Amino acid sequence: MKTTANESSASSPRVPEPTLRRLPWYLSYVQLLHADGCESVSSTRIAQAVGVDPSLVAKDLSYVSVDGRTRVGYRVADMVAVLNNFLGFTHLHRACLFGVGSLGAALLQDSGLIHFGLEIVAGFDVDTERVNTNINGIPVYHNSQAADICAREQVEIGILAVPIRSAQSVADEMIAAGIKAIWNFTPWRISAPEGVVVQNTSMYAHLAVMFNRMKSLP
Amino acid sequence: MKTTANESSASSPRVPEPTLRRLPWYLSYVQLLHADGCESVSSTRIAQAVGVDPSLVAKDLSYVSVDGRTRVGYRVADMVAVLNNFLGFTHLHRACLFGVGSLGAALLQDSGLIHFGLEIVAGFDVDTERVNTNINGIPVYHNSQAADICAREQVEIGILAVPIRSAQSVADEMIAAGIKAIWNFTPWRISAPEGVVVQNTSMYAHLAVMFNRMKSLP
């Protein structure tokens, strides 16, 4: 019998998004401790360093299989390894980027993403001046080649950085090419069928929040 | 008598963050309508296009001074102008970027931010190989020059893209240099005094959420 999405989520509880957003804070802190040769840490100390309530730290860490011992605390080296693995940063996920404009080209130039489990293997664009170039060693192809290349390169993730007018149609092309997740950098609201993950990272929405909060400053 | 932060927030209601994050979706949609020569639009049509409940669209738009008329709907051209202005995209905010590594250099290369009200006027780093260069026409200085240059250039925003070990200390330097808001791209939890806005955009946290959701796919 095939396991359905519901069954698999029943067996491993869905981790709340706020927890997933806080775990990288804890990881950053224990990485520094580890580099400094520190061997164990309590959840209280993590809580203090990160500015999160201790009970919340303990709850967040309960989703992760990291052993804590009363009085001794968590082993730092274990925690670095377990958190990195849990967050998916140790497993390389293959991605393609669609839209090699200003933001898209910038993302291709960020070699740091690979340390967090994201390997961008190709870029796609429709502009003939961009097609058949490469940026930071990553080849740029025409959109029409996406299905072939995504299949050949076993790409799981599509990064969307196209102009808003093409955002939905390019997302549809990605899905047709067998992509499992869309990392959406456009300010366009993408609609996708169930079974495709959409992660929005709209820098412009974040700018809007920041600008608005600045207006309330005395 | 000096107006305090509390008084100013009492006179203009604080816009909820989810609203501020959805408004750019509506703006994107009406921008396309405007480019296509469409003159008016109903909140129902926006809701349908963006995939948000119509009552939520109406509520979100109630924070923005945009005139809607029964049956006629909103005037598209007005809405583009009013939303752009409300979100702060029409006013240039001067920013400096700290940490010209892989991500930082990529952000300097993204010329698109200026269309959303963010003008990066300088970069700062401590690496002598990066200092006194320029990226995309933006000069890179040594961190020690930050206070002088931020004052001279009337910089309001500091973009933080340094390694986690220096994240808090560089944030402290920014604040000492008179910066009003920190756009934090590091996975480090920054602490800042009241009166300084901190906007987190951790791409790594977003990757973690996306990777985790992908694991639950059938």
Sequence-ordered SSE layout with sheet pairings:
The structure is a homodimer of 218-residue chains.
Chain A: H1 5-11, H2 17-35, E1 40-41, H3 43-50, H4 54-62, E2 68-69, E3 73-75, H5 76-86, E4 93-98, H6 102-109, E5 118-125, E6 134-135, E7 138-142, H7 146-152, E8 157-160, H8 164-176, E9 181-184, E10 197-200, H9 203-215
Parallel strand pairs in A: 4-5, 4-8, 5-7, 8-9, 9-10
Antiparallel strand pairs in A: 1-3, 2-3, 6-7
For this structure, what is the CATH homologous superfamily of the largest domain in chain A? NAD(P)-binding Rossmann-like Domain
The biggest sheet of chain A, with number of strands, parallel, antiparallel or mixed sense and barrel status, is: 7 strands, mixed
* N-end to C-end Cα span of chain A: 62 Å
Please count the helical segments of chain A: 9
CATH topology tier name of the largest domain in chain A: Rossmann fold
Evaluate the radius of gyration of chain A: 20 Å
The secondary structure category of chain A is alpha/beta
Instruction: Name the CATH architecture of the largest domain in chain A.
Output: 3-Layer(aba) Sandwich
Q: What low-confidence regions of chain A span 5 or more consecutive residues with pLDDT below 50?
A: 1-11
| Helical proportion of chain A, percent range | 40-55%
What sort of overall outline of chain A do the alpha carbons produce when their principal axes are compared? globular
Beta-strand percent range of chain A: 15-25%
